Amino acid sequence: MQVAAFSVGPLVGDCGRTSVRILGRADIAAATARGKAMLGRIQWRPRPVPGQGETDWTLPLAFRMNSNFDGSGVVVLNDLLPGVEYEYRAGWVTDENVAGEQLDWARITPGRFRTAPADDTAPVSFLFGSCCYRFFDLNGLVSDDRADKTFGAMLTHQRQYGDVDFVMLCGDQIYADPLNRLGAISAEEQYLSLYRKVFGQPNMRELMATTPTYMILDDHEIEDNWPASASKEDWVGKLPAALKAYQIYQASHGPAMPLDPSGRYLDCDPDHLWYSFRRGCVDMFVMDVRTERHLAETARERMMISGRQEQALVDWLLDGSDRVKLIVSPVVVFPDQRRWFRRKDAWEGFVAQRARILEVIRRNRLQRVAFLSGDVHASLVAALHSRQGGQDVTMYNLVCSGLFWPTALMAFRWYSPMVDGKGRLATGGLWSRYRVELLKGLYSRDAFARVDVTRDGFRYRLYDRRGDPLPEFWLERSWQG
């Protein structure tokens, strides 16, 4: 039997030392009247090394695909070796009873991934960015490939250097409201259809099939500035529909989705969307800054994240490991915008909670901390300087946005005159403790970033949408300042 290619995927998600999650989606309704069936197939092997011959593929592993999750399935591969590059081939069949030796893989293009190293001090390299707008024609199809060209440039970069450990997509992977509320969608099938079109683009698809990819949502996965303008109907209609689609296409292959006790398959829906993971010398905490917001009238009561998430972040920061701590916050933590441009949607509108988080870092003199952000359709690196007990404490915010943002919407970008990039952090009553420094200026065009991290420091390198380097915005810093 011919193994058929997925319509979305395969997509390599969370990839640890000995396991990996891979997502695929197909129109299984054409093959079975049941809601779910063991129609997925995958086999894998260590990637052949030139001159050493090939190892045998494993026996095909069947995995479940579920029509209640848009025909998708996530397979978990276990018992892998650390720091090894694997290749795999994955697809689906129309008969769940077909034997492995009867499978024909001729139409399947192999993907690949590299497991995390066993060394907890190993350097880490990753690509990151956010905000990828797409144009659609009157038939609802992607009508402009400029967004996918950015992923093509990232794919070329990975092929050229071969040392990228993972990709981090920091929000607005889709735009469910491309014309703001005028063109916003609200039904579950609309969200699902949008994901199929976006994640089905060729370059994005190949990048995600060959490089572990982590994701988190921002507002446009639901609607602009969610939940500032949400109605009662939106909370019971639009939000559940958006989160169901998000869970299927962005969360299911990541650490937020619980596995069964044996770690072999997805067990249940997540009760929160934030998550953490570890690779080499880096610990990552990926914040959900959208679905837990509390929009109180007073600044002290406003919450960007829930108290539970805040406590989890604090516990993670204070685990005593002295490891590099990278915190993904889809909205920028600092710098603030200048007074005339400030808005309540970003952390500058949630100053009390931001102050608590920054104070944890300052008071405990944590020296290897940086935030990764998007949202603002510009790229920059900012430092936040403070002191505690006679010791300098510096943290960083690395920003890359957007991967593609239309020229027609140039007004909706950050520009240098809008940003308070020098002086004291002006909000939250902490002006005497924190000094902001904008490093290397601000780039207000499409770009993706590469970050190389060691225990000693980091290097931030920016590339334009075509993959050409932008060395005037490159930066290398020691964690000790």
Automatic annotation (TrEMBL):
SUPFAM superfamilies, alphabetized: Metallo-dependent phosphatases
Organism: Isoalcanivorax pacificus W11-5
Domain spans labelled PhoD-like phosphatase metallophosphatase: 151-387
Residues forming coiled coils: none
PANTHER family per UniProt: ALKALINE PHOSPHATASE FAMILY PROTEIN (AFU_ORTHOLOGUE AFUA_5G03860), PHOSPHATASE, PUTATIVE (AFU_ORTHOLOGUE AFUA_6G08710)-RELATED
InterPro entries membership: Metallo-depent_PP-like, PhoD-like_MPP, PhoD-like_sf, Phospholipid_Metab_Enz
Protein name, per record: PhoD-like phosphatase metallophosphatase domain-containing protein
